[in-house]
Amino acid sequence: MKKALICGISGQDGSYLAKLLLEKGYFVCGTSRDAQVSSFRNLLRLGIREKVKYESLVPTDFRSVLQVISKVEPDEIYNLAGQTSVGLSFEQPVETLESIATGTLNFLEAIRFIGAPIKFYNAGSSECFGDLGDRPADENTPFRPRSPYAVAKSTAFWQVANYREAYDIFACSGILFNHESPLRPTRFVTQKIVAAACAIAKGSQEKLRLGNISVKRDWGWAPEYVEAMYLMLQQDRPDDYVIATGQSYALEEFVIEAFHCAGLNWQDHVVTDNSLLRPTDLAVSKGNPTKAKEKLGWQAQYKMPDVVRMMVEAY
After folding, report:
1. What spatial distance separates the first Cα and last Cα of the chain, rounded to whole Å?
2. Which pLDDT belongs to residue 167?
3. Fold of 3-179+222-243
4. pLDDT tens readout for residues 71-85
């Protein structure tokens, strides 16, 4: 039986990945800063809360990382931990950099120290590319990060590449574009939109307050994206992959779709709030997932309209 250690198991991706690996017969261990008090609400929602083993782990503490890896002896480690909000990173840049970059470095160094043939997956981000206009980003597109979050993710990406080349460690980064699901918390704008549309449809008089709705993003379906993570660690050679749908939509289109699914006209319920604008933002974000299709056999089946519909139906 293969053993997987998922750091950040309580989040959207960690929960769906745990479900996928359990279905494939893995022994799955998940970590949290304090596993004894964490609710693991998403795992409960997916019906797998009792099927996973839990360990307390602090990614920024090397001793903690080393202890847990030595105890669990995993075949695969999926590092999905760290501060996940681009918006919040402008308010907490130090915490963001430490949780993502230092956390990733500690995992890599622990794997090197232990010397076992552990395969490592690092959660990269499309935010690293910055603003490319309408050009889709692939694995050879240079990084131009425009947020503290993107800077941290870029740092972690190059740490992974360095350890792969310098120490022959099986380490991969998945450069994932935006991917959503019903497990998203409402601090993410996509779930905020879905929650508001559903609440208003049920009689709420609230207004949905949004910043810049002209930004374009490449939105996919999270349960599909964790399959790509798994596939990366099943290859003969470690490599990095862009995971995306290849299609971009404006946030306004996401809003229109969500309110349409709820039987509403969005213009009656949405107001612009300049206080929600970010210091810097990406106008357009779009990925080119050709390599993932050719090497992993992975292709996104669901595009933005499908994603919105499934999120509204599940709310």
Report:
1. 36
2. 97
3. Rossmann fold (3.40.50)
4. 999 999 999 999 888
